[in-house]
Automatic annotation (TrEMBL):
PANTHER family: THIAMINE THIAZOLE SYNTHASE (PTHR43422:SF3). InterPro entries: FAD-bd (IPR002938), FAD/NAD-bd_sf (IPR036188). Pfam families: FAD_binding_3 (PF01494). SUPFAM superfamilies: FAD/NAD(P)-binding domain. This is FAD-binding domain-containing protein. The keyword Cytoplasm does not apply. Residues 5-343 form the FAD-binding domain.
Amino acid sequence: MSRRAVVIGAGLAGMLAAAALSTVADEVVVLDRDDLPDGPEHRRGLPQGRHAHLLMAGGLASMEDLVPGVSMGKHLLAAGAHEIPLGSGMVALTPEGWLRRWRRPGPRMLTCTRALLDWAVRGAVLDNTGVVIRKARVLELTGSRERVTGVRLSAAAGDEELPADFVVDASGRGSRIVTWLAGLGIDDVREKTVDAGLVNATRLYRTPEGAGRFPLAMVQADPYQGRPGRSGMVLPIEGDRWMVSLAGTRGGGEPPSDPDAFLRYTLDLPDPIVGRLISGAQPLTDVHVSRSTSNHRRYLERVRPWPERLVVLGDALATFNPAYGQGMSVAALGARELGGELRRAGLAGPGLARRVQRRAARSVQAAWTMAVSQDVWFPGTRGGSPGAADRLVTAYTRRMIRTATGSYPAASALWDVMSMTTGPARLLRPSTVLATLSGPPLPPAAGAPLTQEEREILKGLDRTGR
């Protein structure tokens, strides 16, 4: 008897889940309400699609395990993505000072537009599996609180019921999973939102001649000064372009959409490196602004009983402040958990869906802790405020980051957690704690750690007179 799996949503989480399901299901149908572009173009339904996206090493490693016969890292690099080693390819000003650059590269992340990444992943899955995509809007889940049996959908030909042996909701930030579960008699879903009121503003520039190897430049927001957060970054993307993304929290930190004010904002950051770089670069687009940036979590792993044959992944499970670059990697890690359980137990394994939901919650919890523990310090944050435990954790984390500005062992621990190759417990290993308590053996950097060649590039681009 043919076994069918249905995935709701054709974004990154949905296509990776479909790839995992393709190894055990006879038919995998992905349902999406949007018309999907034929190339690397922006699509509806992705409010953050035009802004900076970082695929961390942990997320990329998970993707490598999911699409049969394809190295997703090589595939994305061939499509135009850039590989950035955290240890040597990034110039970053943290609230505790400039991070040094080391000869050892550390974990690597990929940078490109979200449009390119979604298109490349979708193409790899469709070309190497039997997955098919249908345009349709899901109305509800069918089945009972014990087991999901399919979906009811609305398509061009009208409403219909699509039976399935397994269903994955990867429909993103706007998922109706809580309503759908209520329709099955499950109405005890706990949710939480922590919203710093972050606004993103992004503009694309032509990479100036001779600046193609300039490191990713980042000025991070400082949550600890009682003022609205303000940050900015310049990252290389496909097509010989720079993506310049600014972010600021409510109460006066919001970046503007006006091009002249956009440049002024970059120059008023704690260090003007972003503004100095783009002052001599050719803009290619207008400024795009987005406000869909809150941290929102659905604690589905705590729902009892959890219905068999249903898993929720990606932004449908949790969204994070995009400033921390975790969402895509969390989606990939969740899809890998699904793939691993499917290989062990198959579509019909009893308790499989609940096990996947619990395992997916681990990477969600790590990302949630990293994002929320900083966002609660910004003035005007809604849904959370720092408590005694937060103050203790923050004091240690700030000291560790300050140590990382001049200590390779501390910096290595920081990269591992940032890249999601390991969890936050990495920061509590004895070697990391000892390094943190000892402090940085090297003095703080007086300015951005640039090579002489990079300083000449910056000087040549600078039109600000600084």
